[in-house]
């Protein structure tokens, strides 16, 4: 993929939606997302970001329920998968219509129910929708941390991409992917100007990571953290059997931030509340320090370092008919005879 350098000189507003899902309820969570999209559009934002697996909630139980509780884990997974999103499908159609109506670009965190290979795999995904209501792409997380492997499948390089939108080039990583230097470098090299970092992580170490990424890549960071009040899970009988709902207050406090290319936090952190975080972005600031450090330009040193990104897919099943198999056998025989 070639770099898609693009400069938009007019400052504009971005929005980070730190809001809780209606847990394990796809329809209700989509309704909440649509309300946020409308609100951000009315506030003048041109881009809105939603948390990791916002539709229909991060699978928090994988860290709390023992693996031996197979019956309960199976029940939760069935519900989780039933509320996952097909791309495209009715849910994405609704989101696209709302993005078009609000004239805003949307990056939605969701659990995707794959349409290939029987539709049995779930992926932790980011969906990109432009202000014209069109799906421009999706990214499936390449890295799953620990117990996340119980519910999600890791993606492949085919969805590691960046996207050209009216305000500039946007790309993003999910959770643990943000700790992969080569994944980050790929986004930088493809011209990313707005780096979407959605994650379940929070706190000072996470903010330090995001500030480093902003300075390293000379990018704006849109850091959207999940937020989850304990009351969200109080109505779920399976989850109340364990310690998930005993903490009171906030199971996850959020901490969303917006950071400029110099590594400075310009909005947030937003803690222990559901709200939409706004900031004005001036893309010209990306280029002020490029003469000092440009990790994919003058300082990349391709004479020493080289990165290869495999963006092809690897289908589980490949059908080869008898005729092609016979042709391949004949070709091998001909090659053997010519060698003799």
Automatic annotation (TrEMBL):
CN hydrolase domain mapped to chain residues: 12-283
Catalytic-site annotation from UniProt: 52
UniProt xrefs under Pfam families: CN_hydrolase
PANTHER family from the UniProt entry: CN HYDROLASE DOMAIN-CONTAINING PROTEIN, NITRILASE
UniProt record similarity statement: Belongs to the carbon-nitrogen hydrolase superfamily. Nitrilase family.
Protein name from the UniProt record: Nitrilase
Organism annotation: Dictyobacter formicarum
């Amino acid at each position: 993929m070639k770099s898609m350098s693009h400069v938009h000189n007019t400052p504009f507003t971005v929005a980070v939606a730190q809001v809780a899902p209606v847990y394990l309820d796809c329809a209700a969570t989509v309704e909440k997302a649509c309300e946020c999209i409308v609100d951000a559009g009315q506030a003048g934002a041109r881009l809105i970001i939603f948390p990791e697996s916002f539709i229909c909630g991060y699978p928090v139980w994988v860290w709390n329920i023992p693996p031996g509780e197979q019956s309960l884990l199976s029940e939760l997974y069935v519900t989780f998968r039933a509320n996952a999103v097909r791309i495209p499908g009715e849910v994405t159609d609704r989101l696209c219509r709302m993005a078009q109506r609000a004239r805003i670009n949307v990056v939605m965190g969701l659990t995707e129910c794959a349409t290939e290979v029987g539709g049995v795999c779930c992926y932790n995904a980011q969906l990109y929708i432009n202000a014209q209501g069109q799906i421009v792409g999706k990214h499936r997380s390449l890295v799953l941390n620990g117990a996340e492997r119980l519910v999600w499948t890791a993606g492949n390089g085919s969805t590691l991409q960046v996207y050209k939108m009216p305000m500039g080039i946007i790309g993003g990583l999910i959770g643990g992917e943000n700790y992969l230097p080569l994944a980050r470098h790929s986004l930088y090299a493809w011209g990313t100007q707005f780096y979407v970092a959605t994650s379940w992580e929070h706190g000072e170490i996470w903010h330090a990571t995001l500030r480093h990424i902003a300075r390293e890549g000379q990018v704006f960071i849109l850091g959207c953290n999940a937020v989850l009040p304990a009351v969200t899970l109080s109505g779920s009988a399976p989850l109340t059997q364990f310690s998930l709902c005993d903490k009171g207050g906030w199971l996850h406090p959020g901490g969303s931030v917006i950071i400029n290319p110099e590594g400075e936090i310009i909005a947030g952190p937003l803690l222990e509340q559901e709200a939409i975080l706004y900031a004005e972005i001036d893309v010209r600031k990306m280029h002020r320090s490029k003469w000092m450090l440009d990790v994919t330009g003058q300082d990349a040193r391709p004479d020493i370092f080289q990165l290869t990104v495999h963006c092809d897919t690897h289908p589980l099943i490949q059908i080869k008919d008898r005729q092609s198999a016979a042709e391949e056998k004949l070709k091998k025989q001909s090659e053997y005879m010519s060698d003799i």
